[in-house]
Amino acid sequence: MTAERTAGALALAITASVAALLSACNILQPAMYLAVGPTKVPARYVLENRPTVVFVDDRNNAIPINSSRARRAIADDVTKQLMSRRLVTQTISPRDAMALARNQDREGKLMSMQAIGETVGAEQLIYIEMLRYRGSPDNVTSQPTAECRLKVIDIVNKTRLFPPPGAERDWQAVVVQTAPVSPELYRSTAGRRQIEQLLAAAIAGQVTQLFYKHIPDELGSRLTPQ
């Protein structure tokens, strides 16, 4: 065999080997994904296992209608998820905290989160302040959207646990936008109630995700935490 033929044969062999390797990689990548699963995002904060209460605040009237009902739905859902995922093993009814704050508010006295936590017997309080809660981001698009900010308070030691002291911000922002919904839902009381429930569940899901390792957007690709 001449030197030219030998070189040509070697080049063909190398090309075939590279092609086979690439083909194997294309097969292995999906197989590895199926075996290992998608990459999970770590928890932003791991809650201490202490008596915990969730308080949703809307004293600035960010929720235009049915504020109390929406707040209860969010707080109850977060509480249930914390327990079902065993992120904490003892929770206090959010409704007790809401009733306490409501009674004080009627008397013109705004209770601090510290006072609310102490009174209901919590050692840890998850404070969620609503900033926006709308059926549409622009009053045209039929896509519910909401925004809130959150912090975790150590009631016993009277300090903020998350974000930690010294952080750039003393709160964690959460923004959600659900998938578009049927415009028909906006035209009936029952439909608007469905939108309200959908948005409350979206907020609760995104809030709870801050506290455990999870697959990004496992609640739906249109939910966008900040």
Report on the structure:
The protein is of the alpha/beta class and 226 residues long. It has two domains: 1-37; 52-209, Rossmann fold (3-Layer(aba) Sandwich). Helix content is 42%, strand content 17%. The protein is built from five helices and six strands, in the order αβαβααββββα. Strands 1, 2, 3, 4, 5 and 6 form a six-stranded mixed sheet that branches. Strand 1, helix 2 (67-84) and strand 2 form a beta-alpha-beta unit. Helix 2 (67-84) crosses helix 5 (189-209). The protein starts with a helix and ends in a 17-residue tail after the last helix.
How would you sum up this structure in a few lines?
By secondary structure, the chain is an alpha/beta fold.
User: What is the β-strand count?
Assistant: 6
End-to-end gap:
67 Å
Mean pLDDT: 83
Biggest sheet, open or closed, and with what strands and sense?
6 strands, mixed
Task: Tell me the number of structural domains.
Answer: 2
Given helix and strand content, the structural type is alpha/beta
Helix content: 40-55%
CATH architecture of the largest domain: 3-Layer(aba) Sandwich
Helix segment count? 5
Following the backbone from N to C, one meets helices and strands in this order, namely HEHEHHEEEEH
Inertia-based shape: globular
Output the CATH topology of the largest domain.
Rossmann fold
Given as residue ranges, the uncertain stretches (5+ residues, pLDDT < 50) are 3-25, 219-226
Q: What's the alpha carbon Rg, rounded to whole Å?
A: 25 Å
- Tell me the name of the CATH class of the largest domain: Alpha Beta
Strand content: 15-25%
